[in-house]
Specification:
By secondary structure, the protein is α/β, with parallel strands linked by helices. Strands 1, 10, 11, 12, 13, 14, 15, 16 and 17 form a 9-stranded mixed beta sheet that branches. The radius of gyration is 22 Å and the shape is elongated.
Length: 367
């Protein structure tokens, strides 16, 4: 079937572009002497995760316990949950997974460590990696004093095995230039390595120093000695904002196929994908800044102005004149990660033909 025969909205992946992205990042990791542990929260598909492993990825990263369970059920056996796992039910599920696979997860407080110690008592130790806040202002240790206190506490926890530290320089999305991205990246990585040295000074062997954010890693910056792995996610499919960051949309493998359903004015066009299929997420700052809510492939300067639940609204007289009701067009979404989570299946396309239908393995697994 030609992909334009698909019912819309439909999420498409260009096989050749995706494959090139996969090889690009694996080659970069290999050239830097670090392991690649891709974050699968972007594609959420076991089939793609297995392909990443075939190309040389050390293991995979996920965001939630449910994603880890789904990936493990599909044969992935080395999984890091790059998030703080809290709650007796979730910790019990991780403990269960640890019986059959290598699994680790994030930690950033004594309070959480106390919960983990109780949950893993009597079994294999929990394998944890301490998160370091490096500028994103999300979770993670901020003060060295808190880090030292946590390390001291972990010495009293026989059921917790500390592997190392990790960070996410997500604030690089909002910097204003490639050089500013380099500076933010270097500060973040060196801060992470500084905490790893403290860990070592306190008598803990450092097995893992994990970093990752697609914008900084797409630029191919040199990775300082001491980093053991990187965890980019968006690189596999890319999106409009990432395309703007690197200066081209040529690496954008994912598009949303949508049908023109109305042309009610001389400027307005409406298509059949709304917030439920493209999200309403904006990117308004820094190197990832993107106009509107998505770009229209093949129509330079045309973007989605607004969305309702089931409608995308475009204002552009030239685009309105170029299309007719019933025509199908493709959108580059602003942020591909939440978009994939809106679809049960994705269509892999090569040479205009649908060559495979991929199940979104981890769709909706938010716990």
């Amino acid at each position: 079937m030609h992909y334009r025969e698909l019912s819309t909205p439909a999420l498409l992946i260009d096989r050749e572009i995706m494959e090139d992205n996969l090889r690009f990042m694996q080659d970069y990791a290999d050239s830097q002497g670090v392991a690649l542990r891709p974050h699968t929260k972007t594609h959420k598909m076991a089939s793609i995760a297995r392909r990443q492993a075939e190309l040389g990825a050390k293991g995979i990263t996920v965001a939630k316990v449910g994603e880890a369970e789904a990936m493990a059920a599909e044969g992935l056996t080395d999984i890091f949950i790059a998030n703080e796992v809290v709650g007796g039910d979730k910790l019990a599920r991780v403990r269960k997974l640890a019986e059959t696979i290598d699994i680790s997860f994030g930690l950033d407080s004594i309070e959480q460590a106390e919960l983990v110690e109780r949950a893993f008592a009597g079994g294999k130790p929990a394998r944890v990696v301490i998160e370091i806040e490096v500028g994103e202002e999300r979770s993670g240790i901020i003060e060295e004093s808190d880090f030292r206190a946590l390390l001291a506490h972990l010495k009293t926890c026989p059921h917790i095995q500390l592997l190392g530290v990790f960070s996410h320089e997500g604030h690089c999305y909002n910097v204003e230039s490639r050089e500013a991205c380099r500076e933010a990246f270097e500060v973040a990585v060196n801060r992470t390595l500084g905490f790893a040295r403290i860990m070592e000074e306190q008598g803990f062997p450092v097995q893992v120093v994990s970093i990752g954010s697609t914008p900084s890693l797409m630029f191919g910056f040199d990775i300082p000695k001491g980093v053991t792995e990187m965890r980019p996610g968006t690189y596999v499919l890319m999106d409009a904002s990432q395309g703007h960051a690197i200066g081209t949309l040529d690496r954008c493998a994912a598009t949303i196929l949508t049908t023109v359903i109305s042309r009610p004015t001389a400027e307005r066009v409406i298509t059949d994908v709304g917030a439920k299929g493209i999200t309403a997420q904006t990117r308004t700052k820094g190197i990832c800044a993107t106009p509107g809510l998505g770009l229209i492939k093949g129509y330079e300067g045309v973007h989605v102005f607004d969305v309702y639940d089931e409608h995308a609204i475009i204002y552009h007289a030239g685009f309105r004149d170029a299309v007719r009701v019933g025509d199908k067009v493709e959108f580059y979404p602003n942020h591909i990660c939440p978009v994939v989570n809106l679809y049960d299946r994705v269509y892999l396309v090569s040479g205009g033909e649908v060559v495979e239908e991929l199940k979104v393995t981890c769709r909706g697994l938010l716990t």
